[in-house]
Amino acid sequence: MDDDASDIDGDDNSEENEVEEELSTDQKDTVENEELDSFESQEVQSETPESSGSKSSLNELRDSALLEEKRWKGIDEKFLSSGLRLLHLLPILSILLIALTRTFRDISPFWWSEFVNADVKFSVVIGTLSIVVLLTYFAALCITIRKIRSTLNGVKIETDLREIDGQDFRAVHGHSSLIATINSVYKQHIGTAFLVFISIIFLISSILSSDLISEGNIWPGTLMTIGTACLLFGYGAHLLSLRPNFNTVNPYGLLGIYSPPVHPALLDFPFRDVIGTHIDPLLSTKLSDFIHSLSENIVEGNSSIEMQERILHLLYLEQYCGLKKNDVNNALKSILSDEGIERMRGNEHEPWDETWRELIDNARSRVKPYFRLHDRILHNAMDISDGKRPPGGLWFDIDIENLIEEGEAHLFTFIHNGTLKEKELVVRIQTPDFSPTETHYSLHLPPGSVEKMTASESSADVKSYMGDLFQESRFIWQTLLPRQRGEATVTVRLEDKSGNLLSGKVATVQIQYDMSRRLRWWAGFVSICTGGAAILWLLILPILGFIGGF
Description:
Blueprint: H1 2-80, H2 86-103, H3 110-116, H4 122-164, H5 175-212, H6 219-240, E1 266-267, H7 270-277, H8 281-293, H9 304-320, H10 325-332, H11 338-345, H12 352-366, H13 368-386, E2 393-399, E3 403-404, E4 409-418, E5 423-430, E6 434-435, E7 438-445, H14 451-454, H15 459-472, E8 474-482, E9 486-496, E10 501-511, H16 515-548
Parallel strand pairs: 3-10
Antiparallel strand pairs: 1-8, 2-4, 4-8, 5-7, 5-9, 6-8, 9-10
Helix pairs in contact: 1-4, 2-4, 2-6, 4-5, 5-6, 6-16, 7-9, 7-12, 9-10, 13-15
């Protein structure tokens, strides 16, 4: 019995021990889990300041890059690319001085030997002056390179900041091409600076060798020829790859070099689509943030897209069509509050007024047919308001460049249904001298209204109503690539679903080269060919001498 009791007690004790062990392991697990949770929370807390710290450091880098770019931009605009245009004046002047040095390499002019200094050669003085000019040109190129590098750093930092905020900025249309364009300009300037530096070395060697080597030696002339050839190579490459100035100091500083990869074909909001297509990705994101901040000032019943369309249209009317500022503000009150209008106009902290003007100017210079078509529609609307033209019916018009020089043509087609019935229409564009040769668009047009136009009391009312007219209409934007030079025709047919012709327009355009671009291209090509011919002559000359010795 005792043994059994002891066995039972032992079993009970072992069970208690097992229970205690299980409890202890569970407690250990809970403690470990708590420690892991606390550790993970510490990691999350430590990651948050790191990300915020990286963002703050990026902001500091952006500010420093902006200050540096602003400093170099001021010098570049006043003296280098614009203003005095030393990037073009200095290499031309140095080439002329080198040619003068080579002309008087063997003998100085009479007036120099007689009245200035007979001991120092005229060619040495002019050659030294050409080297000084080249050193100035090299310094100017270095300043330009620093400015472009600051711009490139600013764009990259802005991209990183957007991605920290969760935006996949690199996937935006045009971002990669914008970075590639800035990189190509940067590399081209570095290549030009390198060739100029080599040219300076050879020219200095030429002048030094002319004093050290006896007369009749060909080395001074050979070194001078190689130096001149390097300079011609560098300046020719600079001319061939010349682009408009750009910067990130101004919000609109990259508009000149941005080329949109895509554009809409059917314009639901014409001004927003046309102007917005030509906005670079950097400014587009800033504008998107600003429009989002204005959303709280939008009058109820309107959307942000409608607000953008209204703002751009009215600002264009103010800038180019004589609509007064007070009339613009009164028209904006239907979609924005007074506070929103003031913010849209800009202030010291948000200077948007100049940015709006630059956006409109940039789009107007690139797609002139759209704005010309708009102005013609406005003129016809004024005639309808004055009773000079009867309202109603199908309103159909087109516009395209009369002279095509940039390599592509923009065709805009406008259709407005002024009847009382819905219309199913087909717009057929036939362009045998362009690519694509033929396209067609099927459109559904609800009945429009011109009652507000005929009931308008002033020209300001008609101009303000144009936005409503455009919303009832259809705009088609077709890009055409010329297939040949000379005269070409564009035919636009307006048909019903059965293929019956309702209206049509035929435009004749002239396709030719841009003379300024062509002249610059030929100047760069001749410069490179001249440098190549000089190097080739140096290579052929010993061979000719060797052959002549037989």
